[in-house]
TrEMBL record:
Alphabetized Gene3D superfamilies for the sequence: 3.30.70.240, Elongation factor 4, C-terminal domain (3.30.70.2570), Elongation Factor G (Translational Gtpase), domain 3 (3.30.70.870), P-loop containing nucleotide triphosphate hydrolases (3.40.50.300), Translation factors (2.40.30.10)
Keyword GTP-binding: yes
Physiological role: Required for accurate and efficient protein synthesis under certain stress conditions. May act as a fidelity factor of the translation reaction, by catalyzing a one-codon backward translocation of tRNAs on improperly translocated ribosomes. Back-translocation proceeds from a post-translocation (POST) complex to a pre-translocation (PRE) complex, thus giving elongation factor G a second chance to translocate the tRNAs correctly. Binds to ribosomes in a GTP-dependent manner.
Protein name stated in the entry: Elongation factor 4
C-alpha cells in the first residue's frame, strides 16, 4: 500500500557521512545480514572505495516490520513500512546524479558534518531539494568527534532553514548514536508517494532515473513507478525513443536484484527491458504499457557539459570497443556526452563532455579497468567561441580545433560565479589562490563570525585546473567550493602546443590566456619531466606558441654502463665504447618516438 512507502535520499557535501548513515539504516532495518555487512556497503565500485567518495547513486529497498518498530521503541504507528533509499554522491562533479535521485523521492535527509559545518555542496543540494519540493530532515553528524562544533553547526543549519534548533537531529552515524531518531523522522515526516492517476486502473507510468547493461537481460532500467502497476512479461514502450519492448524481469533492489511478479505506484525498482541497444534507453524517459495513451513525465533537464576532453584508443583497432564501452557507461552516467571525431595527428576517437575534471578521471579509469582500454587523453578544455576575420562565430571544444591565430578577430571564454565557503582564518590563503585566477572579487558574506562565503567571478578554465584540490590543501580540508555558469566574456587567448622529442603531441595542446602563457608552459613541461619515464636517449620537452619556444625541459637519457666489464688497459678502449653508445643513442633519437602512457595524461591534467 502506498501510504506505507517512504522514498528518500541522503544529501550532503562530500565526506560528511552519507554512506556511513546508510550503513546504520541498513543495519537497523535488518536489510543486510550482519555477516555480509561492510563499511560503505552501497559504495560497491572499487574506485569509490579507493577514493573514499560516492560516485554513483544507489537505490535500495528496506523493510521495517512491526516487531522491529517495537524493539527499537520508535514513536510511530506500529505497522509494516517500506523505505526506499536512493544514496547520492557529494562531489560537485556528480551533481547530476543528485538531481536525478531527488526526482524519484519525496524527502531528503540533509546531513551536515559537525566538524566542518555547512559546505558549498550542502547549499547546492539544498537548493535542488527545495526546487523539487522535498521534505527536508536536518541532521548534524559526527557529534562524538573531539573537534565537533555541534552548537555552531546547529545554529548555522537552523538559520539556513529558518527553523528552531531543537528541530535538528544530532547523531553519530559511525557509532549509531541517535540514528533510530532519523529512521523515526523519515517515517513520520516524509509524505507517502501520491499517484496522480490512482483512479485509473489501466494507467501505468514509470520514470527511469538510472540504468545499466546486462548481456542477457539487455538494458536494466531503474525506475520510480508514478502511476498504476505492471506485471512481469507485459509489453512496454519507452516514450522518448518510441521503442517497444517486452519485460524480461522486474522487481526490487534489496540490495541485489529481487525478482517479483509486479511493481506498483510508489515503488522504486527495476525493469529488465531486453533492449540490447543502450542508446534507446535514457534517464528521464517514461515507460508506459504498449498500446496505452499516456502523457510523458516531465523527466530531467539535460546536463550541460562544463569540460571537454578527447579520448583516443592507443591501439587504433580498439575504436569500436571504445564506442561500445562509452555507450555502456552512458547508461550509468547520463551526464557523459560523446561524439566521434577524427584528427590527423590523433586518429579516430571521441570528443567527450564532462561535468568536471574528477568526472574525466573516473570515466577514463573505468574505461581502463572495466573494458581493458589503453587511452590517449587530450588536455581538458572548456568551450570557447571565436569570431574569424569573416565575422563567423565558431565554437571550439578542444585545442586541436583552434585555427591559425592570424584568422581570429576575437575570442570569448565562459565565466562562472564561484562560491568558496571557509573558516575565516583561511581566507587570506584562499584569496591568494583566487586572485591568481584573474577573475573579479565580488563579496564576502559571513554565515557566522567564524565562517564566510567568498564570491568570485572567474574564467571557467581556472576552475578545471585543479582548483578544488588547491582550495582543500590551502584550508587543510575545511573549505569547499561550488560554481554556476554565467556566460561568455571576451579574452585574449592563444593555443599552446607541446613537443616531446621533436614530435608535436596534439593531445597535450591547450588554450591559455596570452598573459599566462609562459607560466603555464613552464609548469606543464616541468610536470611532464616528472611523469614521463626516461628513454635510452635524451628527450626534449618544449612548450611553443606560434612556432616560438616559450619553455623547455630535458629528460636525461637512461644510461647503461657499457664499460663496466673493462678493467685496466688504455683509456681509448673505454672511449671507443662510449662513442659507439653515443652514436646508437643519436640514431634512436632520430628514429624513436616517445610513447606517453595513459596515467601520464591523467597526471598532466591534474597539474
Amino acid at each position: 500500500m502506498q501510504e506505507n512507502i517512504r522514498n528518500f535520499s541522503i544529501i550532503a557535501h562530500v565526506d560528511h557521512g552519507k554512506s556511513t548513515l546508510a550503513d546504520r539504516l541498513l543495519e537497523l532495518t535488518g536489510t543486510i545480514d550482519s555477516k555480509k555487512m561492510m563499511p560503505q556497503f552501497l559504495d560497491s565500485m572499487d574506485l569509490e572505495r579507493e577514493k573514499g567518495i560516492t560516485i554513483k547513486l544507489k537505490a535500495i529497498r528496506m523493510e521495517l516490520d512491526a516487531l522491529k518498530i517495537e524493539n527499537l521503541k520508535l514513536k510511530i504507528s506500529v505497522q509494516n513500512y517500506v523505505l526506499n533509499l536512493v544514496d547520492t554522491p557529494g562531489h560537485v562533479d556528480f551533481s547530476y546524479e543528485v538531481s536525478r535521485s531527488m526526482a524519484a523521492v519525496e524527502g531528503a535527509v540533509l546531513l551536515v558534518d559537525a566538524t566542518q559545518g555547512i559546505q558549498a555542496q550542502t547549499l547546492s543540494n539544498l537548493e535542488m531539494a527545495k526546487k523539487q519540493g522535498l521534505k527536508i530532515i536536518p541532521v548534524i553528524n559526527k557529534i562524538d568527534s573531539e573537534i565537533a562544533k555541534v552548537e555552531e553547526s546547529v545554529e548555522e543549519l537552523a538559520n539556513l532553514l529558518n527553523i528552531m534548533p531543537d528541530e535538528i537531529l544530532r547523531i553519530s552515524a559511525k557509532n549509531g548514536l541517535n540514528v533510530e531518531k532519523v529512521l523515526e523522522a523519515i517515517i513520520r515526516d516524509i509524505p507517502a508517494p501520491h499517484s496522480a492517476e490512482a483512479s485509473r486502473g489501466e494507467s501505468f507510468r514509470a520514470l527511469i532515473f538510472d540504468s545499466e547493461f546486462d548481456s542477457f537481460k539487455g538494458v536494466i532500467a531503474f525506475v520510480r513507478v508514478i502511476d498504476g502497476e505492471i506485471f512481469d512479461g507485459e509489453k512496454i514502450k519507452l516514450m522518448a525513443t518510441n521503442t517497444p519492448a517486452e519485460i524480461k524481469e522486474l522487481g526490487y533492489l534489496n540490495p541485489l536484484f529481487s525478482a517479483k511478479q509486479k511493481i506498483t505506484a510508489g515503488d522504486i525498482g527495476y525493469i529488465a527491458t531486453g533492449v540490447k541497444e543502450p542508446g534507446k534507453v535514457h534517464a528521464g524517459d517514461t515507460i508506459i504499457k504498449l498500446g496505452s495513451d499516456e502523457l510523458a513525465l516531465e523527466g530531467y533537464q539535460e546536463p550541460k557539459p562544463m569540460v571537454f576532453a578527447s579520448l583516443y584508443p592507443e591501439n587504433p583497432d580498439d575504436f569500436d570497443n571504445l564506442k561500445v564501452a562509452l555507450s555502456k557507461l552512458k547508461l550509468q552516467d547520463p551526464a557523459l556526452v560523446f561524439e566521434a571525431e577524427m584528427k590527423e595527428a590523433l586518429g579516430r576517437g571521441f570528443n567527450c563532455g564532462f561535468l568536471g575534471t574528477l568526472h574525466i578521471e573516473i570515466i577514463s579509469e573505468r574505461l581502463e579497468r572495466e573494458f581493458g582500454l589503453k587511452l590517449v587523453i587530450s588536455t581538458p578544455s572548456v568551450v570557447y567561441k571565436i569570431i574569424d576575420n569573416k565575422g563567423r562565430e565558431v565554437s571550439i571544444h578542444s585545442a586541436a580545433d583552434w585555427p591559425d591565430q592570424s584568422t581570429i578577430r576575437s575570442s570569448e571564454e565562459p565565466w562562472v560565479s564561484l562560491e568558496v565557503i571557509s573558516p575565516t582564518n583561511y581566507i587570506g590563503k584562499l584569496m591568494d589562490i583566487l586572485k591568481a585566477l584573474n577573475g573579479n572579487y565580488l563579496d564576502t558574506n559571513y554565515l557566522t563570525p567564524e565562517r564566510a562565503i567568498i564570491v568570485f567571478e572567474t574564467p571557467l578554465r581556472g576552475i578545471i585546473a585543479n582548483l578544488y584540490d588547491k582550495i582543500k590543501t590551502a584550508s587543510q580540508g575545511y573549505a569547499s567550493m561550488n560554481y554556476k555558469l554565467l556566460g561568455f566574456k571576451q579574452g585574449k587567448l592563444v593555443k599552446m602546443e607541446i613537443y616531446v622529442a621533436g614530435q608535436k603531441e596534439e593531445a597535450l595542446s591547450r588554450i591559455v590566456a596570452e598573459s599566462e602563457a609562459y607560466g603555464e608552459g613552464k609548469r606543464l613541461v616541468e610536470k611532464l619531466k616528472d611523469v614521463l619515464p626516461p628513454e635510452q636517449f635524451s628527450v626534449a620537452l618544449q612548450a611553443m606558441i606560434g612556432g616560438k619556444v616559450i619553455a623547455r625541459e630535458t629528460i636525461s637519457a637512461r644510461r647503461k654502463d657499457v664499460t663496466g666489464y673493462l678493467y685496466g688497459g688504455d683509456v681509448t678502449r673505454k672511449n671507443k665504447l662510449l662513442d659507439k653508445q653515443k652514436r646508437g643513442k643519436k640514431l634512436m633519437k632520430q628514429k624513436g618516438r616517445v610513447n606517453i602512457p595513459t596515467k601520464a595524461f591523467l597526471e598532466v591534467f591534474r597539474a
